[in-house]
Amino acid sequence: MAPAINVDITNFIFVADFWGFVLALPIALFLAFWLSAVKSKGAVVFGAFVGALIGFLAILAWVGTLIFDKPMPNANGAAIFFGSVLLCSAAGLSLGILVDLLIARRRSRDYRRPEHDFAEQH
Questions:
Q1: Distance separating alpha carbons of residues 87 and 21, to the nearest angstrom
Q2: Which chain regions cross the lipid bilayer (predicted)?
């Protein structure tokens, strides 16, 4: 069980993880775009894509043969597929929100509400 860094694209683990990642991409990217409050929505969508990619690699490393010689025993394609959909979309949305918060923090004056002086208006 030494480190292998072996990716077999014909293995059911890779196929299930890949299609779960593909299905999670529209979910994560759309939600990150829709929930974003910053002007640079492209950076938020890119952050969501990177988060989903990290989720894909995490499942491939955990269950598949990215790190170890043999895949996890008793792993089936359905569990890997649905786990990949959930983990990749959650990781993508989390990193997208984190990028959104970092951008909003750096440019906070663009996102503050203007202060009104009600005494001058009346």
A1: 9
A2: 12-35, 42-68, 80-103
